[in-house]
Write a structure and sequence with these properties.
The protein is an all-alpha fold. It has one domain (25-104). The protein is 87% helix and 0% strand.
């Protein structure tokens, strides 16, 4: 009986982890769309995709959720400012610089 309870608990935790992973993936994809739009509008002519990836990677989970929300409500000045603030973080700047060098070379 104890073994059954442990197995059921493990299965329950696995299901929760899978649901969390799915929610994280959806939020990141929505946030990428918003960040891509902000980058494309603010920096026309640049390939926004690599910059977007760097911004998403440098963002916290709560920032990703906040930015993803703009995919439903619309991009505001506040959203754009949040994206630009994240893009100025050292890890984002380094990532953007690395991607720029890779694209040039």
């Amino acid at each position: 009986m104890r073994r059954l309870v442990l197995i059921l608990a493990a299965l329950g935790l696995s299901a929760c982890a899978a649901a969390n992973d799915a929610a994280d993936t959806i939020a990141r994809e929505r946030a990428k769309g918003v960040v891509n739009t902000v980058v494309a509008e603010r920096f026309p002519g640049l390939n926004a995709a690599p910059i977007t990836d760097c911004v998403i990677d440098a963002a916290s989970a709560s920032e990703i959720i906040s930015i993803a929300g703009a995919s439903v409500t619309g991009v505001t000045q506040s959203t754009a400012q949040e994206v630009l603030t994240i893009a100025q973080r050292p890890e984002a700047v380094q990532c953007i610089a690395q991607n720029s060098i890779t694209m040039l070379g």
